[in-house]
Amino acid sequence: MVRCFLIHTLCPVGALSAGESRVLYSRLFGPDEAVLSKQQLGFSPEERRLLQKEKISVVARQVRSAVALSREASGRQLVDAVPGEEALVLQDADNGVVRLRAGDPFSQEMSVLWLGVQSLGFTLACEPHENLLLAERVLRNLSRHCLENLHMLGQGSEVLLKSSRIDVLLSRLLPHGQLLFLNHRFAQSLEKEVAAYVAK
Amino acid sequence: MYSLGSESLIKQAREIQDSELQKFYNRLVKLLQVKELGHETLDSLQRLHLILCANKYARTLPSDLQQRLLLLLSSPSEQLQVLSSALLRETLPSSGEELNNIQENISQLNTHAAAVLVSQAGSRAELSNLCAQLVHGLEGRPADGPARSLMFTLPVLKSILTLSPECLTEEHVTILSKKLVDWLRYASIVQGGGASSGGFFTGSRSRQPLPTAELDGSVSGDFFTVLCVGQGFTEDQWMNVYSFSMLHHWLLTYHSVSSSNNTMDTASRLQLSFSLSHSLSNDDRSEVDGSVVSMVSATSSSSRLLPPKERLREKAFQYCQRLIEQCDRKAQKKTDTELQKACMVEAVCILDCVCLEDPSMVFRAFPSIKALFGRLSSDLSFARVLLPIAQFYLNHGEMAAVDCECVWKLVFGRFPAELFNDSFLAHELLRFLRLNLESLQLRAPEFIRFLPNLLKFLAWDSSAAVDDFVDLLPSLVTEGTAVEMFHTLLDLPCLSATLVLQLRSMSLPISESSSRGLLSLDAFRNPAFRGLFLFLLRVETGSGHTIDRLSTLHDLLAEAADWPRVVRCAQIVPVLLHIYFNTVVTVADEKLLAHLILVMLERSSLLLAIPTYSKEIHRVFSCHLLRLCKLRPSLVVDQSHELLEFAGTTVNVYSKEEIYTHVVWVLGEYLSVSSDSRCSVTHITSCFETLEAVLFEITSSAPPPGTVCPAPKVITTLMSALAKLASRSHDLIPRVSLFFSKLRTAAKSDSVIWCADEGDLVAIVTRGEELWSLLKTPGVAQSVLTPPPHVLTPRWHRDTNLAMPLQLRVLTRLTHSQ
């Protein structure tokens, strides 16, 4: 199961310290870990929510540092792109996978797949025994739709103001964190639904 | 991409004033009271979402607003469902009763409302309740009805199952297993959505539904799977996709559900068994759809009599076999080709899972797995598919008496050598190693031969792989591999540089000479140095521990010292060396440890010249030299010749200060009869003379050009070592006294050429004085300078001198009032 999907910054953000990442969209799937933990920690709902937010920022930070290292090692230069070049930008995007140990921050070990598109990162944290080939495919697909539907290559803030579009996208392509084996026909059918929603 | 506009929006959302927020809430409530919810409402809801998300601290919405949002969850408009779901998930949960109201109408539940229920569930009981309702909703559904609306049921159940399998009961497992069998094996094989063969001029003529097609365009001849296409899809075909997507996980976890059998009384148990047999004959689609005889399942007619879980396993088996066959077809679209790869991985994993539960299936599964391996093993682009196949071979190869050597040769021999730069393959292969270490050591112990190959992952992407190697390294260090591993770890940055050169060499044409000053690339291509690089790139152990011309290699790779990959690699080597040494002391005998000390001394000057690399490595060496000698003091006497050779070379004082200090210290501490009875007076005397010579030399002449004065620690360590040796062989004491008096005289002059700091000189001289006065009473000197072990190890209550004060202290504390 995919535990969370994030969109976050990979570039330095003025208000944050170096290495921190601003999370623009986050979605956690499944019940709250803190409710089900073996130890009866007795968190209040506020504390549980805070814990979830902290876990998400830990994931974002780890990915940010992994991306920075990867980009430095490969020595590639980032070229600014303009709206309309989504397919090209996605092709050029660097990607990778990070291992998060059990407890840091999720209670089980996680494989975190990331896709770095210019200064923003798309991240999928899933359980290691999941089909990572499929997860990669789903992540790429989700990123493509987000880039197109939210005009993310431009200077707008639709990713913040139209987050319901991402919710609908996830409800079709990654319902409740379930990776789906969709051939092109099934995918087309679902994408039509999403497009219909966005058009409204 | 990330603009200042976005940043300021977030800032505004975080800093919104309470009064303004209350006004916003009120406006929103008014907007929601209107029957027609227009753009402004949607916009405001979205803005509220931003305000709630922007802060990690939760906000509570006013209860009337919360109530309205709960009502919106069941609104017919999806936009309102989505927004209200997102908002409710961001706020603190409402009280149980409100959520129960939603749950009551389970057939009205939509996917967004379900998301709220799952994420806001406050206890395992609530989740169990939800699961029970969802499962029963699936069970008793009429054939017609809003088809797609309950499709989210399977993903929700899976998400709960992942974190808390106890939320489902055995009964639920039975029901779900039966439904899964239906959807997986007996989904309709005609296209849905009204696709017909009439074309444009359909009219009232035959609207025969078309059969589904395979990915290469041909007509499907067997049951429906995720690799079948059509113009539209029926509801059970959708459920086929959802079922397969969760099948693997289901098979892994359905054993850990809570068994409610002990709470069931006889009556309900009877009822369950009645309903089981009832459903086996009624709900079972295999009766209805008997026309489809699957080519895969020709012998499955008896499977109807199996209990549900076993039946599911059988059907899963058939499904996976069919998928594997389907993956042999050439898909018309590229995206489907990629899906085929993912399907192959999933199918093999499920087959592995099924065979682990029911070993009798191994003989049926192996032929297709073997055929798949044969088909894919020559194509490196299928490397990631071959890993689950290797897992299958590892788990079941022994039972099927199949020779797996070709598999290991491919996975450990070829993949790391040719695909080291594929980060996903590296991740999965290293994970495979980590999870199966014990099994590999038992069934394929020769995998350790491929050690140099496996380290290529580490050399290429050190930051990603170091975590895995921290877990793996202890098992890879054995008596046979210890020395070679040591050399390889020290030269890991060289391997890193070589891999970079290898890739560059493949992409740049040969004619292009070192245009960017890549002398190392020229060297890589030069036949004269081929042997050096080939040794680094070797695939298996056994061709020697290291090479003679290491220094040549280091010179050739000098310009790689600032490449990011090489620098990163150099940073992780000390960490791994610590783990290496911690492990090696547990597996090595004294002979091996002695050899390692020699290697340490030898390699301390044979390292790639990266800034701070030598220093870090020397620090690790010093630390572990100390630990080794403390563990086996006789090593010092054993290797005294080599240690003395090192200690007697004055140049080492300046170039390898830290190691030198520690070598001198261990010599002083452990070169004695109490460590090893073979230690004779000649040993002590020759050691003394060597150290004395060096000490005289460094305290009478200036440091060689280009080096700094030796740190006071070196000098005081030398002095202490001499004093310790003299305390064991009293004829040497006068010579020590001679040195100390010379030292005192020299210090009386203003400055000395071998010591830069005044304070340091004073410290050295003071130490000298202390040692000298100690040596005036030779009998005491030995026990002070080298105390016997029972003095150093505290014996607490076993020591009668110490016990009394401790006992009194305890009694006092007990009897004193708080």
Give the distance, in angstroms, between the N- and C-terminal Cα atoms of chain B: 66 Å
Give the SSE order of chain A as H and E letters: EEHHHEEEHHHH
Q: Kindly report the average pLDDT value of chain A.
A: 90
How large, in whole angstroms, is the Cα Rg of chain B?
Answer: 38 Å
Give the structural class of chain B: mainly alpha
Q: Can you list the strand order of the major beta sheet of chain A?
A: 2-1-5-4-3
Main pleated sheet of chain A: 5 strands, antiparallel
General shape of chain A: globular
Individual helix count of chain A:
7
Mean pLDDT figure of chain B: 85
**SS element count, helices of chain B:** 40
Largest sheet report of chain B: none
User: What's the multimeric state?
Assistant: heterodimer
Q: Which runs of chain B of at least 5 residues are low in confidence (pLDDT < 50)?
A: 195-199, 261-270, 275-295, 297-301
- Specify which chain pair forms the largest interface: A-B, 80 and 91 residues
Helical amount among residues of chain B, as a percent range?
A: 55-70%
What can you tell me about this protein's structure?
The complex is a heterodimer of chains A (200) and B (818). The model of chain A has no long low-confidence stretch (mean pLDDT 90). Helices cover 45% and strands 18% of the residues of chain A. Chain A is globular, with a radius of gyration of 17 Å. In chain A, helix 4 packs antiparallel against helix 6 and helix 6 packs antiparallel against helix 7. Chain A has a five-stranded antiparallel β-sheet with strand order 2-1-5-4-3, with helices on both faces. Chain A contains seven helices and five strands, in the order E-E-H-H-H-E-E-E-H-H-H-H. By secondary structure, chain A is α+β, with helices and mostly antiparallel strands. Chain B is mostly helical and 818 residues long. Helix content of chain B is 65%, strand content 0%. Chain B has 40 helices and no strands. The two termini of chain B are 66 Å apart. Classes of the chains: A alpha+beta (200), B mainly alpha (818). At the A-B interface, strand 2, helix 1, helix 2, strand 3 and helix 4 of A face helix 1, helix 3, helix 5, helix 7 and helix 9 of B.
